[in-house]
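Annotated sample (chain length 96).
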Amino acid sequence: MEKIVEKDELQKFIDKSEDPHWWRNIVDDLNNKSVRLSRGDLEMILRIRKGKVAHKDFDINKNYHELFPNVINPHPFQSNEPKRRFIPSKWERLKV
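Output written by the structure step:
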């Protein structure tokens, strides 16, 4: 398989001046091709860089409710219990 010949700086400058979308072109080393990224590809890259899911229609929490249909609060220590419940009362303190 023949490798794509890398262009010199003058040829790169000419390509940039002739093509307004030169920044969308990337080199695919695995398939040995020059590829132009589409708008969808660019949006996917931006979503990944922001730390989101690559595909905008994918819902991360979709299967969570199917796995735990009857669970209201999966974390038992998130309820707002009063602090006095954990502190021993005056009479309990005297017994100790």
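Annotation: Residues 39-49 form the longest helix (11 residues).
Annotation: Strands lie at 25-28, 33-36.
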